[in-house]
Amino acid sequence: MRLFQPAVMTGFRRNQANQYNDHAILHIDDVSSANDARWYLGKRVAYIYRGLKKRKCFRSRVAPQKRSRTRVIWGRVAKTHGNSGAVRAFFSPNLPSQAIGKKCRVFMFPSQI
Fold first, then answer.
1. Total domain count for the chain?
2. Can you give the C-alpha Rg of the chain in angstroms?
3. I want to staple 67 with a disulfide (CB 3.0 to 4.6 A). Which of 1, 21, 54, 59 is the partner?
4. Nearest-angstrom CA–CA distance, 32 and 34
5. What is the spatial distance between Cα 109 and Cα 45, in angstroms, rounded to a whole number?
6. Which residues contact 104 (CB under 8 A, 6 or more apart)?
7. pLDDT digit string (tens) for 7-65?
8. Cα end-to-end distance, the chain, whole Å
9. CA–CA distance, 14 with 81 (Å, rounded to integer)
10. Is residue 112 part of a domain?
């Protein structure tokens, strides 16, 4: 059983003159309508990437010698975007522009089921 659904970060919310870097637009796999995308509202999103230098892992007090290059930026699905199943997500800190076209994970929690 998989605890996440893959998604692709396709860009930032924008209009002809402005771009809003705090609103990332995600296309979730197997979601093709705004009605399907509503189920993902409020779900947690993770953008996983690799940095240049090794840093302490998340639970560094439990295993202080453990170091990794893998890092995560966490966010949350906030709203649907359009009629084709895209969603808007807020990340803290904002996603970098190198994330456009890269994979994210939309986790199945918190859940109301």
1. 1
2. 15
3. 54
4. 7
5. 10
6. 6, 7, 8, 9, 26, 45, 46, 47, 48, 89
7. 999 999 999 999 999 999 999 999 999 999 999 999 999 999 999 998 877 665 666 67
8. 16
9. 11
10. no
